[in-house]
Amino acid sequence: MVDLKAIADQYDIDLEQLQVEKGEVSLEVLQAYIVEHFYPRIQKEEKVLGFRKVIAERLSESYRNAVHVTINMDIDPTNLLVLKEKTQGNPSLTVIMLKLVAFALKDCPNLNATLEDNVIKVYDSVNICVAVDAPYGLVTPVIRDVDKKSVADLVTEYEDVVSRARAGQLKEKDFVGGTFTITNLGMLGVDSFTPVINPPQVAILGINRIKDVVVLENNEPRLAKSMTLSLSVDHRVVDGAPGARFLQKVKEYFENASALE
C-alpha cells in the first residue's frame, strides 16, 4: 500500500490542507499536486527526428562515456564585483551569478532544456541546480523560478539549501525539476575545468576563480581582473555556436554593473 504521508513529507505537503483544497486525496491527486508545484512548466516539446535523431544516435555511439563538449570564455569580472557591493545585503557572488545566468537562459531558452527518450523539452521555468560539496559527496539541489525571484529571496533559498545539503537534510523535492546547473569551483582556486552535465539536462556552467592578469592598453601594460567561464553542452542537442552565443550573453550580464537595477 502506498504511504501518501511519506511521499507528502518529502515535499513538505500538508495532507489535511490538501484535502480541504482537493477533497479526497489519492495518489493521483498527490502526484498531480507535486507536478504542478515542483516540476518546471514546459514551453515546448518535440520528438528528436530526422537529422537531429541521426546526430544524437551517432554521437551517443561515438561518445558513449562523454557526450559533452566544453567551451571556455574569459570575462572581465570587475563590474560583477561592483554589482555585488552595490546590491543590498552584499550577497555572495554565487547568488548574483545565479540571477544573471537566469537572464541569459531566458535569452537562450534552448539551453534551459532536457533530453530524455529522444524528446527535447525546452522549459519556461528557470530552475537552476547548484552544485554543493557536501560531506557525503557532490549534490545538486534545485532553486526554482530563479528569473522571477528577488536577490534577497535567492539569498535566503541558497543559504537554506546549502545548509541543509551539508547537514544531510535534503528531501526528494530538492532534486526534481532542475533545468540547468551551475557549479562554482572558483573558491577552490580553479582556473578552468570540464563540468559534467547533470542528466537529463543539456548544459552546465562552470565558474572559475577571479585572478589578476596583465593586459595591454594603448600599448601600456596594466593590471586587470579575469575569470574563465566553462560551459559543457550535450552536443546531441546544443551545437557549439549556440553554446558560444549563450556564453556571450552570460558575459554581457556579468560585465554590466547595472544588470540588476
From TrEMBL:
Quick check: keyword Transferase in the entry? yes
Which protein is depicted?
Dihydrolipoyllysine-residue acetyltransferase component of pyruvatedehydrogenase complex (E2) (Dihydrolipoamideacetyltransferase component of pyruvate dehydrogenase complex)
What are the names of the required cofactors?
(R)-lipoate
Highest taxon of the lineage: Bacteria
Q: Which SUPFAM superfamilies match?
A: CoA-dependent acyltransferases (SSF52777)
Question: From which source organism is this entry?
Answer: Coprothermobacter proteolyticus (strain ATCC 35245 / DSM 5265 / OCM 4 / BT)
What range(s) does the 2-oxoacid dehydrogenase acyltransferase catalytic domain occupy? 43-259
Any one GO CC term of this protein is: cytoplasm
Q: Which UniProt keywords apply?
A: Acyltransferase, Pyruvate, Transferase
Any one Pfam family here would be: 2-oxoacid_dh
Q: What Enzyme Commission number(s) apply to this enzyme?
A: 2.3.1.12
